[in-house]
Amino acid sequence: MGISKHLVKVFNLLLKPVYKAYEKWLWIQIRKGPMPVHIGIIPDGNRRWAKQMGLNPIEGHEHGYEKIKEVLKWIWKLGTRVATIYAMSTENCLYRDEEERKHLLGLVKKGLVELMNSEEIHKYGVRIRVVGKLDLVPDEVVKVAKEVEEKTKDLSERNLYIALCYGGRQEILDGVRKVAIAVRKGEIEPEYVTEEYFRKHLYTADIPDPDLVIRTSGEVRISNFLLWQIAYSELYFCDAYWPDFRKIDFWRAIRSYQVRERRFGK
Fold first, then answer.
1. The whole model's pTM is what?
2. Active site annotation includes 44
């Protein structure tokens, strides 16, 4: 049985002063600590949140879409220079119910149009890239993606990567193919293929690897997200479903990141 939306609203209203006080306390704890340069987000749990609320999955994705916009504002205000959002996996694009898949891609298109016309994107100097198997994406969505990339290509203060119909294994395979072609053409000898050379052939070649990856919904896995890039990333798993992800959850993730000792295998 879904939870009454009215009861949830009343409950949240009663707790609002407590949340605000706790949020302020968390900010005092983290504000002077080291901040992640690159944050990856796996926004999971829209459908389960909708079921819990007695809604259909499409409504869950609508709420999740609004949450992404909110969280990006938190990220830019924090001073983080790079964010990568796992919008849809390759499996989402191939195997989700057709109606749900079309709706998700429609939300992506809507979001790209909003980003293209957003004052905040220019305020924070955010360059936008859409990466993944775009041959699985409708032409109209690809067209908008190219337009927003073109419009923001000269912005350089921050970067937003949107992983669409994306899979980490596929990205690595694409990189291997590019390197193999370079070897076949005689552009490089196999023994000179280093990690640094290989990473130049990844979708995210010109940005630093994620310092912190946040996944919501209580699932403790990375689901084929940036497999090469997150070898030394700090991982934070949050129990909240994505539409319920609050600023206090975000601050907790940052606090957890700050107290960890990052030794990169040394």
1. 0.93
2. yes
